[in-house]
Design brief:
single chain; seven-stranded mixed β-sheet; Rossmann fold; alpha/beta; globular; about 30% strand; 7 strands; about 220 residues
Length: about 220
């Protein structure tokens, strides 16, 4: 979907993805010492706002002006400050070496477009900084529900890791989450990759490519 389509989607009366953070953002980042965070493809800002509530200094970037306006309203209502930037991530250049966390949640681009975004995201990390990517996995087409139906827009852990040369990969796996729909609860399959920029101590907590059950329904980043 391009900018106009996202603006139309965000123009409805309700938040598209809800006000609470993505469940994997919470499980992977809770307890990480706050610093400067960059939320790429922030949408309506729910993850950026949650990070700000945890003490992070957050910049949220998206190309959908309507989504960013929603995000600013939600941040004001929650009493937190976030810097919102309107930019297409296929062109956006973040400050190099400046962020302790870069979050990319459900940015579904073709691999030839996603690879450069990931490399620039990695370059934006300060030494010891964390990159977390969550997105719809290609296996979701065969054994999941929701998300894009074009395989070229879906991730695999291996493809994401291949674009993060130079980072230390802590997690690279497929995770599942229940999604509630008209036919009841079904599982969606996501890619989850967590990596760090070398330069300070940061221990890994799990490795491998495996499916993991989760508890909270959530259909987007």
């Amino acid at each position: 979907m391009e900018r106009q389509a996202w603006d139309q989607r965000y123009a409805g009366p309700e938040l598209v993805w809800g006000a609470g953070p993505n469940q994997f953002v919470v499980s992977e980042l809770t307890g990480l010492p706050p610093g400067r965070a960059l939320d790429l493809a922030t949408g309506e800002g729910r993850n950026a706002i949650w990070l700000a509530e945890q003490g992070w200094q957050v910049t949220g970037v998206d190309f959908a002006a309507v989504g960013l306006a929603r995000a600013a309203e939600l941040a004001a209502a929650r009493g937190v400050a976030v810097r919102w930037v309107a930019a297409d991530l296929r062109e956006y250049q973040a400050e190099r070496g400046a962020f302790d966390l870069v979050l990319i949640a459900y940015l579904q681009l073709r691999q030839d477009e996603l690879g450069p975004v990931l490399r620039r995201a990695a370059a934006a990390l300060a030494p010891g900084g964390t990159l977390l990517l969550i997105g719809h996995d290609r296996e979701n087409l065969s054994r999941g529900v929701g998300g894009p139906q074009d395989p070229d827009l879906l991730h695999t852990p291996e493809e994401v890791v291949a674009a993060l040369d130079g980072l230390v990969v802590q997690v690279a796996e497929r995770v599942t989450r229940p999604v509630t729909g008209e036919h009841g609860d079904r599982l969606a399959v996501d890619t989850l990759v967590r990596a760090i920029q070398p330069g300070s101590a940061a221990g890994s907590h799990r490795n491998g490519l495996e499916a993991e059950g989760t508890k909270e329904p959530d259909d987007h980043g």
